[in-house]
Automatic annotation (TrEMBL), chain A:
<protein>
    <recommendedName>
        <fullName>Alpha-D-ribose 1-methylphosphonate 5-phosphate C-P lyase</fullName>
        <ecNumber>4.7.1.1</ecNumber>
    </recommendedName>
</protein>
<keyword id="KW-0411">Iron-sulfur</keyword>
<dbReference type="Pfam" id="PF06007">
    <property type="entry name" value="PhnJ"/>
</dbReference>
<keyword id="KW-0408">Iron</keyword>
<dbReference type="GO" id="GO:0019700">
    <property type="term" value="P:organic phosphonate catabolic process"/>
</dbReference>
<keyword id="KW-0004">4Fe-4S</keyword>
<keyword id="KW-0479">Metal-binding</keyword>
<dbReference type="GO" id="GO:0051539">
    <property type="term" value="F:4 iron, 4 sulfur cluster binding"/>
</dbReference>
<comment type="function">
    <text>Catalyzes the breakage of the C-P bond in alpha-D-ribose 1-methylphosphonate 5-phosphate (PRPn) forming alpha-D-ribose.</text>
</comment>
From TrEMBL, chain B:
<dbReference type="Pfam" id="PF05861">
    <property type="entry name" value="PhnI"/>
</dbReference>
<dbReference type="GO" id="GO:0016829">
    <property type="term" value="F:lyase activity"/>
</dbReference>
<protein>
    <submittedName>
        <fullName>Carbon-phosphorus lyase complex subunit PhnI</fullName>
    </submittedName>
</protein>
<dbReference type="InterPro" id="IPR008773">
    <property type="entry name" value="PhnI"/>
</dbReference>
<keyword id="KW-0456">Lyase</keyword>
<dbReference type="GO" id="GO:0019634">
    <property type="term" value="P:organic phosphonate metabolic process"/>
</dbReference>
Amino acid sequence: MSSGYNFAYLDEPTKRMLRRSLLKAVAIPGYQVPFASREMPLPFGWGTGGIQVTAAILGRDDRLKVIDQGADDTTNAVSIRDFFAKTAGVATTLSTRDATVIQTRHRIPETPLQHGQIMVFQVPIPEPLRWLEPRETETRRMHAFADYGAMHLKLYEDVARYGRITTAYDYPVLVAGRYLMRPSPIPRFDNPKLDASPALMLFGAGREKRIYAVPPYTSVKSLDFEDHPFTIESWDRPCARCGAADSYLDEIITDDRGGRRFVCSDTDHCNQRLDAKEKAA
Amino acid sequence: MYVAVKGGAAAIRAAHELLADVRRGDRDVPQVDLAQIDQQLGGAVDRVMAEASLYDRELAAVAIRQARGDLFEAVFLLRAYRTTLPRLGDSEPLNTGAMQVDRRISATFKDLPGGQVLGATFDYTHRLLDFELDAPDLSATTPVCTAPPPPRVGDLLGADGLIEPNPDDGSTPADITRDPPTYPASRAARLQALSRGDEGFLLALGYSTQRGYGWSHPFAGEIRRGFVDVEFVPEELGFAITIGKVEVTEVDMVNHFSGTEDTPPCFTRGYGLAFGHGERKAMSMALVDRALRAAELGEDVAGPAQDQEFVLSHCDNVEASGFVQHLKLPHYVDFQAELDVLRRLRAERIEEEALKEAAE
């Protein structure tokens, strides 16, 4: 694999094309930049956008972390990490703190990100207005005019019908007060981490051929109403493994009699806390 | 008990070893070699080359064997290889008029210059399973067509002005593998997307135009199949040289058109081209191409096959297959978020009902 292919798989002109798109995306926070997405040796819908972005920004000294559902050991995260270990030979890490580039699907790590770190999100559907308007020609016009009334109306209809906003994940945000953006299918719990983050956030949608970005220290506001403020998920018990009371928990069914356990979805966070506990003991 | 998916890497490795084992099957049965796939499963090779948009019979055979005959998977393998190849330049447009045809039929004229050449075709075969096929009698050799290239039916009609000319403004066509899609897409971009589009999807869309979902009144003006030269102009030479031959199926559909204020009534075209013996694909493509011209010809855009965004953004089976199957990936985090919302809604409802009951 490592022979016969360029560093990080993609050829250099393709990477340059990607970097140009990334620069434009950073210059216009939240704006979806069309790019000539390539077929990757992994299927579309399995992180090809994120993989192309990572391939374009990876240097030899980078330390790459890949997570899926917050975990380093889920099958697709393992597969993507192996892909870059093979094609770029870069160092990989499970530690959020040590990573320079973190490719993710569906989560932002619990450990606060630092200046200089880059998050790369895998995005299935980049267009926040897609379920309201299937046509690209229309949605691009709506973005151009910042015509986001339809989204507010959708959220309002939720409130009218259910008494609350029922969007559970991929909750729409307004970036730098201008562009409506899908944060990718992260839970609402992670939305506040996007706001004024010191890290650079890059989003790649391979199948849909769009790249967008949130530069460091940029305002990212989850849409809501004064009388129905944005809320995040909460649990009435801590992580059964490390005892964290402030992390996003996965629910694990332990038997067929309704038994449940809740553990951190962020495996690195959970393991670090356990290690610290063991050291202290 | 903590039941997280530990050891993902080991599990993936084991799954791939199992796949290799299943792919090879019973070791007492000889492995198919690439020449066998190329020679005896030519239809599969043609389809994989067409939808991967890479003309290389041997690589297609490699992909088909590696994919254990799963042609979608083979297309994907070949596409992922194709995308790493450098682009050296554009060939000259294929001159299909100079094609050495081994099949050429027209449904619009009983006889015409160059005649009707059936060539190798499933048409008119009775679809009866042939239990003797493992020992076919091939002692009688069938003559192949060696006549000079026949004139195009479109040109014959065009001489009388009965069909619209094929417009060529000389501009460089779009390249859908290098330019992100924009709508409305040019006809060149549409034809590229269709020619690598999924045969089944295009077949169904083409079929839908015949059943009223999009106005269409097509005749198979001409179907021709054979080898054509690929010519390229190297910068240092400045003139075209032939760099190889490709086998293609070309379909020119003739469609009714009532004309507009500016143009007198004439026939319009739908165009299809596929690598190899790709007649079903090329015909479907020609129907869909014509349907997608609805807007430019001032027709109502009513059926799915006439809707550019719908057709072009869903016709690629590498994209479609990947996204449909990504549902296999873990979604625990989103599902947990959905559970959270659902439980809150249910709790609120139960609370409301309890209050209501207490009030009653």
